[in-house]
Design brief:
Layout: H1 2-36, H2 43-60, H3 65-88, H4 97-118, E1 123-124, E2 133-136, E3 139-142, H5 143-165, H6 167-177, H7 179-184, H8 189-215, E4 217-218, H9 222-237, H10 242-263, H11 268-282, H12 300-303, H13 314-330, H14 334-359, H15 367-385, H16 389-408, H17 417-436, H18 438-441, E5 454-455, E6 458-459, H19 463-485, H20 488-498, H21 500-505, H22 510-536, H23 546-559, H24 564-580, H25 588-602
Antiparallel strand pairs: 1-4, 2-3, 5-6
Length: 611
């Protein structure tokens, strides 16, 4: 019994400590959403930068912890101001999907910049505080626990005083309640936005430093998990609800702590994703917000309004297809053929995403999950059922279409930014399930010795054969989608994109047509994932990550949302160009982020426009 009480006490303390860190992150997200009605995907990157700034200050400069905290606050607060001023301010009058996508691009740039400066390897972060633990009841509490609790409570108290008793705090609350009314009353909304971003960045940066001290390590990829957990805590309390964000962060910390104690550490990140999806389904406005109508859809159609597509004559398309088919007869370099094969496979995914996001207007950030389902399905079918590759390719695509649609089904009732968050969480749930379902997926070990692609029983192992096979799949998919988009079904999807309320008023069943578009998209993505798995002959839970989803989204935006030919052009451009400048290969993802930012700012309709 004493052992149980000690464990219970320790897990409670651990949950509250981690919950305080999540609360700091969630409060920042709540401030930004309340003032700007924006989901800030760059917030996790600011959190990560705060951790690295603190690490440099304490381990390299040997500064005391209070000075390190002050430096983190100054650096991250300044970064928040820069993000608002140069990354987002000029997008205020754009559709809400534009600043949302811009924060994704900013996150990409910040994450890759940190990797280039400090390498992708984790860095040890010794805790300068005393390691002595004070026994309390059946458990104990340490100095770092007390510090995190003190900072969490202190930050909450200071923020409460600021919002309640200062003129700038009143202006921030007024802007959160009604931005246009506040502006008419003389409130400087730009200053309010800057204040919200600065405060949010300071809280996020300090949270990053504290988590680095708590776990004794910092690493560049910590940004994504922090962002998702901040979203989960924020949603739990209610988007834009600061007190709710605090309660949501503490609740998430406790759930995660006890969940890890019961199920194991590999399930740590799964709890946040499950909570995120459940809250979105049951009460998307949060547990502590008044129930209200969901905000209007940030229409992709509005995002690309008045964007005429660039006309590409049929003869030019045919000529390009013939040239692509003939390339292996001219190019003998296996590496060059492999790069182009990767471009065709990513082009398949870009086609599937442009169908959902560009044609139907449903912002998806979780397509990597569809790739993983297709890859694992085909690998398991060929290894355990011994089906031929051609059959497993189609079967895995069907499985991906069914599972993908069922996973996204709860999000069909959601709108606006909620759809993007839900698909992001679904993609990560797939990865977490693959990691923990050892009996089927081999867990972290992955699946090895996957049979290479085959053509009528003959294995396609030569780079030239794999090239032609992948190109043929791309051309077939493009032709099918071209026919679909010109059919009544395609026109219905575009009607939903332009105005789902008007479409519903005309008798269109939104859930049915959303299910159809996600099923078609998942089917194509499943083919790409399955072929990729057989081409590599090995896959694990990290083969298809959230970076893949963002990369494909960048390709779609570059080519033109809803433009099939543009999706392929975007895929080829962002796959081949980095290889032409191989000396800059380490800067690849940095370039992707910059491309995303520049396209949203200067040509949101893409290179070829939209249809």
């Amino acid at each position: 019994m004493d052992g149980f009480l000690r464990t219970f006490f320790d897990q409670t303390i651990n949950g509250l400590v981690i919950g305080n860190i999540y609360a700091l992150t969630a409060v920042g997200l709540a401030l930004i959403f309340g003032v700007g009605n924006l989901i800030n995907f760059a917030h996790g990157s600011v959190y990560m930068i705060g951790a690295y700034v603190g690490w440099v200050a304490i381990t390299r400069a040997q500064l005391p912890l209070p000075i390190a905290l002050l430096i983190v606050a100054v650096v991250c607060g300044t970064l928040g101001l820069l993000i608002e001023r140069f990354g987002l301010r000029r997008l205020q009058n754009s559709a809400r999907i534009a600043p949302l996508l811009a924060t994704i691009g900013i996150s990409f740039v910040l994450d890759q910049a940190v990797q280039l400066i400090f390498t992708p390897n984790p860095q040890s972060f010794p805790n300068p505080l005393s390691s002595t633990r004070i026994p309390i009841g059946g458990g104990s509490i340490g100095a770092i626990d007390l510090l995190i609790a003190a900072i969490g409570l202190g930050a909450a108290a200071i923020l409460f005083i600021f919002l309640r008793f200062t003129k700038l705090g009143w202006a921030l609350r007024a802007t959160a309640q009604d931005r246009e009314a506040a502006q008419q009353m003389g409130v400087d909304v730009h200053r309010v936005n800057q204040t919200a971003f600065a405060i949010a960045a300071i809280l996020g940066g300090i949270a990053g430093l504290l988590v680095g001290l708590y776990f004794n390590t910092v690493y560049p990829t910590m940004s994504f998990q922090a962002g998702v957990k901040g979203f989960a805590a924020n949603l739990l309390g209610g988007l834009g609800n600061v007190p709710g964000a605090v309660v949501g962060g503490l609740a998430l910390g406790l759930i995660e702590s006890f969940g890890v104690a019961i199920f194991g550490a590999t399930y740590r990140n799964l709890f946040a994703f499950v909570i995120l999806i459940v809250v979105l389904i049951v009460r998307p406005n949060g547990l502590f917000s008044r129930k209200r109508q969901l905000p209007p859809e940030p229409l992709t159609g509005t995002f690309i309004a008045n964007a005429r597509s660039v006309f590409v004559p049929n003869w030019a398309v045919i000529a390009l297809v013939v040239a692509a088919l003939s390339l292996p007869l001219v190019i003998k370099d296996p590496y060059a053929l492999q790069v182009l094969t990767n471009a065709w496979l990513l082009g398949l995914v870009a086609l599937s995403l442009t169908l959902v996001t560009g044609t139907a207007g449903q912002t998806s950030l979780g397509h990597a999950g569809f790739l993983a389902i297709g890859a694992y399905s085909s690998a398991l079918i060929t290894q355990r059922l011994h089906w031929p590759f051609e059959v497993s390719l189609i079967a895995s695509a069907i499985i991906t279409a069914i599972l993908g649609t069922l996973l996204v089904l709860p999000a069909f009732r959601l709108r606006a930014h909620y759809v993007a968050i839900a698909t992001l969480g679904i993609g990560e749930i797939v990865a977490a399930a693959i990691l923990n379902w050892d009996a089927v997926t081999n867990g972290a070990m992955g699946i090895t010795n996957i049979a290479p692609p085959a053509i009528f029983g003959l294995e396609a192992t030569a780079p030239r054969d794999i090239y032609w096979y992948s190109l043929a799949l791309l051309l077939i998919a493009a032709l099918i989608l071209w026919r679909l988009m010109r059919s009544p079904l395609g026109r219905t999807w575009r009607a939903i994109r332009e105005d789902d309320v008007a479409a519903q008023a005309y008798g269109i069943n939104l859930n049915r047509y959303k299910a159809l578009v996600f099923a078609a998209s998942a089917f194509i993505a499943g083919i790409s994932g399955a072929f990729t798995g057989h081409m590599y002959t090995y896959i694990n839970h990290e083969t298809f990550t959230n970076s893949t989803s963002i990369l494909v989204l960048t390709m779609v935006i570059l080519g033109g949302m809803g433009n099939l030919f543009g999706a392929i052009v975007g895929a080829v451009t962002l796959t081949v160009l980095p290889e032409l400048f191989r000396g800059f290969v380490d800067y690849r993802y940095l370039v992707y982020g910059l491309v995303l930012l520049l396209m949203i700012r200067f040509r949101p309709q893409g290179l070829l426009g939209t249809v």
